[in-house]
Amino acid sequence: MAIKQKTYTIHCAIILLVIFWPMMLTYLKYSKRQKVDGVEDTSYNKPNLVGLVISDEKPKFTWENWFNGSFQSETEDYNNDHWSMKENMVRLNNQFYYKAFNQIRVNGFVIGKEDYVFSEGYIYSAFGDDLMPEEKIITMMQKARIVQDTLKKKGIDLLLVFAPGKGEYCKEFVEDKYVHPIKNTNHDLFVANSKSAGVNYLDLYTYFQNLKSTSKYPLFPKFGHHWSYYGECIAVDTILKHIEKLHHCNLPDISWSKVEVVDTARNRDADVLKSMNLWKNPEQNMKLAYPEVLFETDSLKNNKRVLTISDSYWYGPVYLGVPQNCFAGGKFWYYYNKIVPRPDDGTAEVWQLDLKQQIESNEVIMLLYSDGNLPTFGNNFINDAYELYTSPKTYYAHNERNKQIQTFAKQIRETPGLLKKATQRSKDYSIALDSAIRYDAMKFAGMIK
């Protein structure tokens, strides 16, 4: 009796292909891309996604990292990040959550009514859910007043600027689950205690609230985190006029006669939308204004150097050209850490500088923070400046210890593999990324186990 020979149909072949296709894709990489300026991008092996920390360097095999298991875990991470379908799968996954559950896959951000996106922390700030102990604010303002008086004797003015947050300004678009009666907010406490301590301040938060019913164009965009480009121009104009009164000087004016109105957000007006990494972006349905800004060119006016210590709200005015055209080239210290733009000597971070020399090379020191960042207002600048001028010996002792930590923190920020681990730690323990980086830096410095 003849044995019946087993045959495989096309259906079996398709099934096998489907099963093994994901494994086959792990060996496929992205083709080389061209940068906008036409220069070839050698980091071709990366998905075109915003907000991901990805290492370009493939793990190298050694017997040591093989036996301690780090080679295997790092290789797995590398293959996962450089998988040729990574971008498509992430975008499809994000699109599914966005359409099916009205969720956005951006860490710390939520979607509200009519597709308005919010930092959840800024919603908490708007409703007073992140309220600080008032005693802490009182102490901070008392120190700020001493710093202000000390600097005034040297011809330097200190100015605190309280910027508006989207959670407060667009409160009517916040989901109902966050809404409740408001007893107090950090903004209210900061304004009240700044006033009682006699500290110079500018309350843009309240100013924007008052403009809301009369503003011709939106001051906050639907898919952006910060004030709109138009709102940014209004804020800069207001700050310049306030500094002129405070410091008794004339600064270059900004003006615009032409305003282009479009229905598609540009640049930072859609910064969260870019981070959403969707397969298809939603309709924006908002008319946004883009003034054609002109700076007064008068070198006799552009001679007051202003140092700005701020959160990400000040990046917009930097891109606009305010420091170069109005503040005599004054620097921006992002979260009292990163120096923008980087000095010619390559110094990247504030801790590498002589704080006293830096402060006293400016005519105005401006601290600008939005309400969501008031719990970390100034990022310890006020404490450092207070200690520097009241107890120099103590300050320099603390500063030396901090330099050890910051040296390792800088290494972590500049090493994608280490930064990725710190980023994961911040998500796992629901802590700020800077806190996770500092924790790892202290471990590297041997200060904690």
Structure report:
With 449 residues, the protein is an alpha/beta fold. It folds into 2 domains: 102-390, no CATH class; 391-449, no CATH class. Helices cover 44% and strands 11% of the residues. It is built from 18 helices and 14 strands. The chain has helices at 10-25, 63-67, 70-82, 86-101, 120-126, 134-152, 166-169, 186-197, 204-211, 229-247, 271-276, 315-320, 322-326, 355-359, 381-390, 392-414, 416-428, 433-444; strands at 33-34, 40-41, 109-111, 117-119, 157-163, 201-203, 254-255, 259-262, 288-291, 294-295, 306-310, 332-334, 338-340, 364-370. A 6-stranded mixed β-sheet has the order 6-5-14-11-12-13, sandwiched between helices. α15 (381-390) packs antiparallel against α16 (392-414) and α17 packs across α18. The longest helix has 23 residues, at 392-414.
